[in-house]
Structures are given as C-alpha cells and as structure tokens.
Amino acid sequence: MSFNNLDTLYRQVIMDHYKNPRNKGQIEGEHLSVELNNPTCGDRIDLQLKIEDGIVQDAKFEGEGCSISLSSASMMTQVIIGQTVEDALKMSEMFSDMMLGEEMEGYEFNLDELGDIQALQGVAKFPARIKCATLAWKAMEQGVEKEES
Question: Which domains does the chain have, with CATH numbers?
Fold first, then answer.
C-alpha cells in the first residue's frame, strides 16, 4: 500500500474513533476517575477505570478536545480493557515512544497488537499534537498509580 493510501486510511480510522467513540460515558459503581487537561489547546478528559485483581475490567471516558485527543482516548480504552495493569502500563510506554519517534524494539507487544492505535503514528511528525495524543494515556498512568497507592 502506498504512503498516501496508508495516510488516508489512518485519517479515516482517527475520524471514525472521533465521530463514533468507543467506551465513551460513565462507569457505574465503584471506580477511580482521573481528570486531566491540556491547557495549551484546551483538550480535557475524564477517564474512569475499574480495576479488579490487577486487571482493567472497564475503561470509559468523557471529555472535549480535538480529533487526535478523543480518538486516542477511544483507541486506548479499547486496548486496555482486559489487560493486566502491568501490560496497560507497558502499552502506554510503547505508545509514548511511538509518539516521540523512538525505536519500537524490545516490547512484548508490537504495533499490530495495539489495533487502531497504529493510525496515530503520524502524530509524531507534529510535536504540538503529541500532548493531544498522549493525554488519555497520561490519565491512565495516573489512575493506575492512584489505584496502587
């Protein structure tokens, strides 16, 4: 597939998650919640996590922001549900490295296992947008830290 076709496909995936977000809403019952914002561009996310026995049982979000920020939150919630907290954190580290354009070697996961998240690779070319893409992931990291303490 040519670069232009791949770029178009990635844009379509991002816009699909933006227009039809997965796991948007509130978790009922006991859960932890982390609210973060990106004052630079106004993105805001409220991430809710339900963690039991070290497993992310559910993840939902609400918020406002650009297509990158909200589609990243949608994609993230899809991949972390059912994962151990440890694996969710490893995915977050891998995602952060992808955003910074760093080597993607040495991870237990590969990009194919991260599903639609591959579509966000191009964000690395736009440093001002990296914070948009990583906002939900940073919220997840803070939520896990809150759960562990």
Answer: 3-148 (3.90.1010.10)
Find out whether 114 and 96 touch, Cβ atoms under 8 Å. Answer: no
What does the pLDDT look like over 104-143, one tens digit per residue? Answer: 777 777 777 778 998 998 899 999 999 999 999 999 999 9
Q: Left (φ > 0), alpha (ψ -120 to 50) or beta: where does 43 sit?
A: beta
User: Distances from the Cα of 143 to the Cαs of 33, 65, 76, 86, in angstroms?
Assistant: 7, 20, 14, 13
Q: What is the pTM of this model?
A: 0.92
- 78, with CB counted inside 10 A (0-12, 13-18, 19+), is middle
pLDDT class for 1, splitting at 50, 70, 90?
A: low
Taking the CA atoms of 28, 38, 6 and 124 in sequence, report the sign of the dihedral they define. negative
Distance separating alpha carbons of residues 22 and 101, to the nearest angstrom? 26
With contact defined as beta carbons under 8 Å apart, do 35 and 138 qualify?
no
DSSP string, 42-55: TEEEEEEEEEETTE
DSSP letter at 1? Answer: -
